[in-house]
Amino acid sequence: MKIILFSLGIFFSALGLTFIILYLNLLTMGYSFLEYVYFIIRKLECLVLLVGILFIYITLRKRNTL
Fold it and tell me: Pick from 14, 45, 7, 40: which is nearest to 26 by CA?
């Protein structure tokens, strides 16, 4: 189960980063950096990056067993 969750985390992170890099073209079209960040926050395909990071964090954290 951890391997599947970790793989999904890697996939979601790569997908989100790809869209964030693709949307960097907005800066050349006249958007300011704050407008760019606001645009990225509102896009669902860019928020997938946070889900991927969360999945990776969940699979890599150590559990304390007593």
Answer: 40
Domain assignments of the chain as residue spans, ordered by start: 2-60
Residues 60, 17 contacting (CB under 8 angstroms): no
> Residue ranges of the chain with pLDDT lower than 50?
none
Residues 44/15, Cβ–Cβ less than 8 Å: no
pTM of the model: 0.80
Per-residue confidence (pLDDT) for residue 2, from 0 to 100: 87
